[in-house]
Amino acid sequence: NFLKPSIGSFNELNTSKKRKREKRTFHAVLSNKKSKQNKQRKAEEYDDEEKQGEKQNRFTKETFDLQAQDIIDTYATASNNYQSPCCIQYLTELVKQAMKDIKFNDSWKEYIQSTSRCLPNGFVAMTLLQYNGYVLRLHHFNQKTSVDGLHSHKWDFESMILCGRLNSENWSVIDPQDKNTNASAVEQTTTAKFLRKREEGDTTKTTITLLEEEVILKLDEKLSVESGECYFFPAGKIHRVMKSTIPTATLVLTHPKYMDAILYDQLEDHAKEEIQIPDKMTLAQLNQFIDICINT
Q1: Considering Cα of 276, then 208, then 148, then 198, what sign does the dihedral take?
Q2: Where are the beta strands (DSSP E) in the chain?
Q3: pLDDT digits over 40-82, tens only?
């Protein structure tokens, strides 16, 4: 005869099973908690290593200058007269990497601020590097009118559009006898010609000297360069940058000087010789511009 189990023995069995389940659940929760803690610790260690690596890889002005100089030595000569120059493309990648470090480096920002030029129409130029006749600049086009009238430069330059859109016009001098030739089909203007000279190493002062009272120019072409595109522009070619409907920033590498810079403007707007001293950009303006570059 089988013994019939008592109610008490059933209760003891159920309690034992319940305790075992609770124990398994406890160990599972504990194991899961430890696993999460281990993962979190490893993630924190990885973040610490990553931050340490980032700290070691941060740019200073000195490390930036050395890398930029190496790029210029390697590629600048190859960029001459190419519509899509390679040197400015490599420099653009370098500048983008360095921008966050510039933002939090007060001495670096002070240098940029000290080399900046702000024209009354809203155009701002900032120097990042001067090396063997090459100058690397950031330009901010936020002008209400065209930039500084028609002009030519004393050096070739290459430029990358970091954000926005650069609208410009190219012009050329025509013989006075040809003034009325195709005048209805081609836009022409009569203007004065000035020598524009800045002392070497001095970004604060420009001397304007009258050369000719009357020069006739004709419009050759209108251009529009979009963000992410680059171009090469030769010294001596006459152009002007038109006002921008959207904030536009460019990175520009000017090559060594080999001719005079010329300004073509209305005679009554200038004395026969005058000195222009542009304002410096404020720290707030510089920080705002850096944010624009970081977010592009």
Answers
A1: negative
A2: 117-118, 124-131, 134-141, 150-152, 157-163, 165-174, 188-198, 206-226, 230-233, 238-241, 248-254, 261-265, 273-276
A3: 776 665 555 445 444 555 889 999 999 999 999 999 988 887 7
